[in-house]
Structures are given as structure tokens and as C-alpha cells.
Specification:
4 strands, alpha+beta, 4-stranded antiparallel β-sheet, disordered C terminus, 266 residues, disordered N terminus
Amino acid sequence: MEAEDSEKEAAEQEPREEQEEPEEEEAECSGKKRVVPGIVYLGHIPPRFRPLHVRNLLSAYGEVGRVFFQPEDGFVRRKKKAAAAATGAKKRSKYSKDYTEGWVEFRDKRVAKRVAASLHNTPMGARRRSPFRYDLWNLKYLHRFTWSHLSEHLAFERQVRRQRLRVEVAQAKRETDFYLRSVERGNRFLAADEDPARPSGSWTFAQRPTEQELRARKAARPGGRERARLATAQDQARSNRGLLAKIFGAPQPSEGMEGPSVARNS
């Protein structure tokens, strides 16, 4: 009976020891600090510098996670290729694309801070034959910046670029449609001018008739010559009377006095 009781007590104590082990493991895990990744920003990327180079150079200081380089604009790349072709330089098939800026993620943000503080404004290449020996690191630690922020920023830039491209395409389409409509309207006008059944659409300007033309028209009417001759005679008589009045000092005949005589003579 004593042996059976001792076995029961031993069996009851074994699960208690197994249950106490996870509690000790949880206490050990809670004592360790959670590792938070940190991101370092690269403000200057020399030509022919690739993500593999930065990973090889910075992995000596700590574990490097994700790396992203922003490629240069396509317009700038085409402009560089055109300039190289104009100067007769050799085409760079392997290194045809360059980058403007980059982001490097370290597994531990403390390592990222230490790397940004120690390598800033120092030569990239340690060897003499390194192509990046005379280029300096331009590093900055991004405080409270995560990789999701970078993804959102890049997605927003892509959306803005697509929207701008969509607007430019719509503007070019409107200009093309306007040009085609103008050409079609001009062709219609030219076809209408060549149509013999269409009346002449040229503008005709009429000048006001002069006084001589008016007198000629009045003389051309029936009885107009006699009236014209009588009007000239009256004008001559009026001028003669005025001249005589000036010579002999008599009052000049007024138009009101000449009116009944003119009417009587007519």
C-alpha cells in the first residue's frame, strides 16, 4: 500500500513540473527586447552602383533586409542616351540604368542608427581600385519610418504619374481632334469655292458717290441738264451780286430775298 501511494504522489508531481517549464520560458522571452527593424535613406547613388553593391558593403556592419533603389526618370535616361550617341560614346548595355535614391532596411534599428552615424560622409569604397572610392556615403536614419510607409509612398507616386500621363494623353487627343476638324472644314470651304453652281462669295465694297457723280446722275435724268444749267447760272449771278455789293458798298443780297426770285424764275 505504501508503494502504491508513493507511485501516485510521483505521478501527480510530474505534470506540475511540466507545467512550470513553459512559465519559465515565457519569463525568459519577455525579458528579451523585441527587435525592431530600421531603415536608412541613401541620398546619393553614384553611377553603376547597384543594390547588390550596397548589400555587400553594409552587410559587414549588420544584417541587411530589403533594399530598394529608385530608378531615374525615363526622360532623363533617353536624354543621356541621345547625348552619348551624339558624342560618339560607347553604349552602356550592362549599366544603362542609373538610380537617384535608395532605402536600406536593417533587421535591428540600433544597427541602422550606428551605421548611419558612422558611415555618413565617408568614402564608399575602401579599396584603391574600387570604382566608388571617391564617392561619399550620404546616409540618414529615418526615425519611426517603416517599409509599409515606403510602399504607400511609391504606390502614391505611381498613381500620380499615371494620372498625369492620362491627362497628357487626353490633351494630345483633344488637340489632334481639333486639328483634324479644322482640316476637314478647310477642305469643305475649298470644295465649295470650286463649285460653279455656288454664287460668288467674294466681298464687294461700294464707295459713296462724289459730288461730281451726283451731279452727273442728276444731269442724266430727263430734264436734268436744264436744271443743272439753271443752278449754275444762279450760282454765278449770286457771286456777281456779292462782288458788286462789295464794290459799291451796297448791302449784300440775303438768301431769303433770293429765294422768291429763284422760285419765280423756276
